[in-house]
């Protein structure tokens, strides 16, 4: 962004590990009298873009990369190499009057629904607010061909549990690749009714977390801030931090997310945040006594149960398998499960009779987990 003219450019960076990034000289656009830069294009209709690699297109296809921009409505672009872009023939994909679109709108491919999806800004007028007669919210639009899109519909909105000045400013939606039927969202929340001392504009922000099984119905069980502004007072401004698009594996037990900080500062930059693999949230047990949670009845395939968990040195957990009525299955009660402790991404659960669950596959089973000074992030049934 050129702060003097408010002109913006889309730039390109690349990395082999998601940690160390290079900005190659592309020679595609002139800036300051030189093309020795990493600017993708000098087009003025590229702003707040979102890019995907389309798995429906074969390598070498001139439409393998797809992009949306929010200039002139929602507009679409395609590319064969991710560097040279051209607009699609049906622009705009969504018209100006179907807005507002003044946010970072996110393009995804939903491999299970077999649809392209855009998560974009909306206005929820069912709750009072000062933005267009309501509050900023998140909508969803779908397409089977990337060219023709459905009318956007609200999917995430503020409710009675949220403060009166609570706005969903961005969405940062992700179709999570490591699990079926899992969507994640990391929206930036704008609290427009408060101003940090010395800040140039009203409003403060944080990033929150939401999840979904279908990308339409979203769970906001975790309401507290996921990423806070932090110790640097320059981050206590409106529209900061803003989470970027994507979740990237950067180690055997680590995932990385990227967000911008110092929004109102000339030193604005990207920062990398990490979580353990599949460890976005957890169920945690108390220091004294046992905490406990129970799943709904599940039908699984596979032969063993694996937990993503962490305990303290003195903490532990146990797992019981139950029928639909809540009765422990023979040989799979708490008394049959030696206490488990340690720190594992894929820790195998073993009972006194072993780990083999082949005889229970396909039958309705509930997991009951009790834990003390320990937390469970995820579980799965595995075949190998």
Describe the structure.
The structure is a single chain. With 384 residues, the chain is mainly beta. The chain folds into two domains: 50-276, 5 Propeller (Tachylectin-2, Chain A), CATH 2.115.10.20; 283-382, Sandwich (Hypothetical Protein Tm1070, Chain: A). The protein is 0% helix and 35% strand. The chain contains no helices and 24 strands. Strands 20, 21, 22, 23 and 24 form a five-stranded antiparallel beta sheet that branches. Strands 1-2-3-4 form a four-stranded antiparallel beta sheet, with no helix packed on it. The protein has a four-stranded antiparallel beta sheet with strand order 5-6-7-8, with no helix packed on it. It starts with 49 loop residues before the first strand and ends with a strand. The mean pLDDT is 96.
DSSP helix fraction: under 10%
Uncertain segments: none
Task: Give the number of DSSP strands.
Answer: 24
DSSP summary: helix tally: 0
Quick rundown:
With 384 residues, the chain is mainly β. The protein is 0% helix and 35% strand. Strands 20, 21, 22, 23 and 24 form a five-stranded antiparallel beta sheet that branches. Strands 1-2-3-4 form a four-stranded antiparallel beta sheet, with no helix packed on it. Strands 5-6-7-8 form a four-stranded antiparallel beta sheet, with no helix packed on it.
